[in-house]
Each structure stands twice: as structure tokens, then as C-alpha cells.
Amino acid sequence: MSQEWKDEAFATVVKVAESMREFTPDDIWDFGLEKPLEARALGGIMRSAKARGIIEKTGRVAPTRQKESHSTDVTVWKSNIFKG
Q1: Are 77 and 54 in contact (CB under 8 A)?
Q2: Could you give the domains of the chain?
Q3: pLDDT (tens digit, 9 = 90+) per residue, 13-25?
Q4: Beta-bridge partners for 61
Q5: What does pTM read for this prediction?
Q6: pLDDT of 68 higher than 90
Q7: Which phi and psi (to 5°) does residue 6 adopt?
Q8: 81: DSSP letter
Q9: Distance in angstroms (rounded) separating the CA atoms of residues 82 and 79
């Protein structure tokens, strides 16, 4: 993954966290982040945002809306920077 994509992905996670109390990776894709060939690349970005205190896990999961992922469960994240 290019550094440019990683930077854009992190910025998108911050935007989503500022605008939603809780969200899943599907919401990040919905915000317009270009999905790479390997969508799991977003996992490292989420871990980085968690380490910085921007988001935290809720302990819940939800089925993904991404058709190619066959309704697998994804983490529901809580924003620590929600602005409303």
C-alpha cells in the first residue's frame, strides 16, 4: 500500500469518527475512500487510529454490507472525537 493511500485512509477515518458516534469499515468506504485490491489493508489504519485514541472497539460486530465479503462480521468502532 502506498504512503499516499495510507495517509488518505487515516484522514478518512478521522472524518468518519468526527461525524459518526459509531461506525464500521463499511462507513469508511462509503465516505469515498478508494478500496485497494486487498481491503484488509484498512485494518492497520484502524489499529493506528485506535493507538492514537481516536477510536475504540465497542465489543460488538455487524455483518458487512460489502457484497464481496459475503456478510462476514466487521468491528463496530466508537468515536472518541465525535463532533455531531
Answers
A1: no
A2: 3-79 (1.10.10)
A3: 999 999 999 999 9
A4: 75
A5: 0.90
A6: no
A7: -60, -45
A8: S
A9: 6
